[in-house]
Amino acid sequence: MTTNRPGLVLAICCASIVVVVMDISIVTVALPSIRRDLGASVSSLQWTVDAYTLVLAAFLVLAGSAADRFGRRRVFRCGLAVFGLGSLLCSLAPGIGWLIAARALQAAGGTMLNPVAMAIVATTFPAPAERARAIGVFGSMSGLALVLGPILGGVLVDGFGWRAVFWVNVPIIAAALVATTLFVPESRAPRARRFDPVGQVLVLLVLGSVVAALIEAPRLGWTSPWILGLLALAGLGVLGLLRYEPQRADPLLELRLFRSIAFSSAILMALLALCGFGVFLFVATRYLQEVRGMTALAAGLCLLPVGPAVLVLSPRTGRVVGTRGPRGPLVVAGTALAAGGAAAAWLGPATPLPLVLATFLLFGVFLGTVNPPITNTAVAGMPGSMAGVAASLASSGRQTGTTLGVALAGSASGVWWLVAGLGAGLVALALAGTGRRAAATAYRAAGLFDELSRPRPTG
């Protein structure tokens, strides 16, 4: 892949990631309006969020490998078109079921944007230091989009109604589609990977069963045959993945990647970190509107302290990761998440607003320092042919974490304590040491990356 305008390519990728990630959070501030307008239950509201994040998590790896095979720009453009269509259908949904279905279609387009944009960025900036800085900027857009979503959503909901949170995507997508056609060059992996339909079905089975069990358990009960059956189905799916995927020449889940300590730790931390943030995002907007009685715009503005922290810290974190490694930023991120979770456990209807804003600022520090080290650690040191798969798995870990967080937010009464526990776990993982250079060097010596670069026997 060659381009004379790498900065413009980065800007296009950032624009795409903004709309994809923003639609995870922008809808949260509209949930009370959707509930009143469409008569939705709490579980339906959870599905409105999780139908989007679940599809993103389940199909990101497939989209990444498809982009490596058919061309990243081609898949990227297709994703933009599908995402725009899904957004339009969301704005026209006559009922909650239609809205959930349209959200799933919207996410199907998003799966072709998130990991593919990351792969385009990684190949546009091959030098390690430049790539780390570019990933820092890209990560800051991702984190900032999560925060700007409720603020923009509040403006749109109060001014035009909840349907406007989906209309706003259409002109952005149209502009990105034209710019991609004009300025983003095509690129492919050196060796095309074959599709793995069985693996894809198993991944969807595992994630869908777990999320459905978490969302429906408060209504049906944890001992309900349906819930127990869903959990058993998820367990069988995991066993199927562990048995079937190693036999594939080109598996959907490249389990050999997880033999790298750095890569495995990055995926696990992405899962735990974004699970905590998903809980925060779903509960915080409802707390502000339903407990404190704020308008949608006021609730969105209360999340404003998170934005500057993300905008300032993410690029600087990318530079620190490129020069000193990921451990320091991860310790800061885990500490901020744990402190924010502990402080949030004491919030109530009469808590002074400055204390609420200070608590939210801790989550901004967390989000601004967690994404760049996770993404860079997952991609760095991998063979070029695996860039799309590695980036897809990192993105899938984040989306899976967000999905589980939203599902847990409605099924756990002491949900703020869960956030604090996840933060403490993130600190422990960071302190355990996942230095990118040391781990990559050790596993290169063991021949892991040479093995990853070789084609597997057919099977």
- What amount of the residues lies in strands? under 5%
Total beta strand runs: 0
Globally, the shape reads globular
Rounded mean pLDDT score:
78
The major beta sheet can be summarized as:
none
| Helix-strand makeup class | mainly alpha
Secondary-structure element series: HHHHHHHHHHHHHHHHHHHH
Helical amount among residues, as a percent range?
Answer: over 70%
Counting H and I runs of at least 4 residues, what is the number of helices? 20
Q: Report how far the terminal alpha carbons are from each other.
A: 31 Å
What would you report as the Rg, rounded to the nearest angstrom? 21 Å
Extract low-pLDDT stretches: 413-417, 434-459
Provide a descriptive summary of the structure in words:
- This protein has 20 helices and no strands.
- It has 459 residues and is mostly helical.
- Helix 3 packs antiparallel against helix 17, helix 4 runs antiparallel to helix 6 and helix 4 packs antiparallel against helix 9 (169-183).
- Mean pLDDT is 78; it is low at 413-417 and 434-459.
Report a brief summary of the structure:
This protein has 20 helices and no strands. The chain has 459 residues and is mainly alpha-helical.
